Amino acid sequence: MDNQRLLLFIALSFVLLMIWQAWMKDYGKHPATRVATPTAPAANRAGQSPVPELPASAARSTPASTPSVAPALPAGRVIRVRTDVLDVQISTVGGDLRRAVLPRFAVSTERPHESVILLDDRGERLFVAQSGLLATGNTAPTHHARFSAARTDYRLADSADRLQVRLHWRSPQGVSVEKIYTFHRNSYVVQLQEVVHNAGDKPWRARPYEQLLRHRPRKGSSLFLHTYVGGALYSPQDKFQKVTFKDMSKHSLSRSVTGGWVAMDQHYFLATWIPPLKAPQDFYTKALPGDRYVIGTLGGALEVAPGQTRTVAVRLYIGPKLQERLVGVAPGLDLTIDYGYLTVLAKPIFAMMRWIEELVGNWGWAIVILTILIKLAFYKLSETSYRSMANMRRLSPRLKALKERYGDDRQRLNQAMMELYKKEKINPLGGCLPIVVQIPVFIALYWVLLESMELRQAPFVLWIHDLSAPDPYFVLPILNGITMLMQQRLNPSPLDPMQQKIMMIMPIMFSVFFAFFPAGLVLYWLVNNLLSISQQWMITRRVERGAK
User: Fold this and answer.
1) Residue 290 backbone zone (phi > 0: left; psi -120 to 50: alpha; other: beta)
2) Is 346 exposed, middle or buried (0-12, 13-18, 19+ CB in 10 A)?
3) Residue range 334-349, pLDDT digits in tens
4) Residue 215: alpha-carbon gap to chain centroid
């Protein structure tokens, strides 16, 4: 295999890797989930099913029998809560969080005044956070219960650091529950307390639960830029795991966990219920009619004696996947930023890029500088590769002469070529290892640029207003194709006519691919190509001068 074949192999391998990872995320195997059985802990305690108050038909539903339109959630009074980072609507039905707008994040650069809506209770956009108490033989406030509230509009005052919203429920037996949401300034973490007071004459028992209900969204990822949307969970034992909608359709998960969290994850944003870290929980999932899916956590038994008051406290994160925020919220929550199998390389690369961005104040220039630093780190390896290519280019006329002399006699041609390599002290594979060693770094950087929330709608210069979106005028993809053609002029020409045609098509093919890639990714490839051309040109001239 000569260097031209190697470059072709690497390029095609990269494209195939993108296709394979997209396929694996949709159809590949995922961590096995444990199906709830009558002996599972979730079924034993208080004799309850892991999923509170779901229709019996839901457990038997399959994608084939699922209605195309999801049933609407029960309507109640809407309580609006506005802080500096959240605009939330809470329903008096169950105290659900029905809507969450993120005012600091625009839908796109074309619609800068339209904010991202993370939670919503409308049709196919259904995505809500629910909570409640599940009791046996008692009336309890589940997510179907009707609460009352003193006000329907709350706003965080300029002088305040937190804001509380209180909802009330009372049973005929004298048990009252106050659901208290606490919002904090500059925070996407919402604290939930359920304060239970038993004014009756009998003990009252229940289990608290929190769950995320979501309609399966339509696929929006392209073949080469697949991003995950679905369930996720974390436990100290099994660490971070994804639970796809397909997994939920096949079987309901029931897992006993102490510490951890459950989430509905999507590109750049997520919603996460975080129970107390030391409290035993049962994590569960369920597929419901109408292409709806639930992932949640069911707490341990709560007993409130007559005259006693007990409080249950959990946290809810609803916001962007910014690394510095997620690390401080819960263990493992930053793993929802999916860098794939090369996370061990991707995290240091991102840390370096963020440090550069803090110095220069622009993520685009941070990508350029980081590319230069990576190129410098691999300078010696690249030099070995380019020197091998330069020597191969110097021998190209003699190799062509051998090709003409031996024609289709492959055995004699290969033997003559090996003798020539030996005579000139050239290793035709000398450029392979340096390039192969760099591939994991390039792929890790690819995922950093694709997954990092910090690059979303980050401007660069001139017409590039969003490094996470494709170049609107295709300038970067075209320039990248031109640099690939320039680099080919420095490489030795393949002897095989078919390889020559493929190498000529590659710049066009990659320009088409990169037209759909985020501008930040194409910027990296363009800068890397320009640096490679400069280095290769200098080394080629040095080798050719030394041969004269």
Assistant:
1) left
2) buried
3) 999 988 888 889 999 9
4) 18
**Would you say domain 76-217+228-338 falls under CATH 2.70.98.90?**
yes
Asked if 232 and 263 count as a contact pair (C-beta separation under 8 A), the reply is yes
Q: What's the predicted TM-score (pTM) here?
A: 0.81
Strands 78-82 and 153-155, sheet pairing = parallel
Question: Could you tell me if 167 and 149 are in contact, meaning their C-beta atoms sit under 8 angstroms apart?
Answer: yes
Compute the radius of gyration of the chain from its Cα atoms: 30
Residue 212 contacts residue 295 (beta carbons within 8 Å)? yes
Q: Could you tell me if 375 and 382 are in contact, meaning their C-beta atoms sit under 8 angstroms apart?
A: yes
In percent, the amount of the chain with pLDDT more than 90 equals 51
Report the candidate in 148, 150, 145, 146 with the shortest Cα–Cα distance to residue 168: 148
- The rounded distance, in Å, linking the Cα atoms of 449 and 453 is 9
Domain ranges of the chain: 3-17+347-547, 76-217+228-338
Classify residue 346 as left (phi > 0), alpha (psi -120 to 50) or beta.
alpha
Contacts of 443 (CB under 8 A, 6+ apart): 14, 17, 342
315, two tokens: 């946290």
CA dist., res. 60 & res. 493, Å (int): 62
Chain-centroid distance, C-alpha 444 = 14
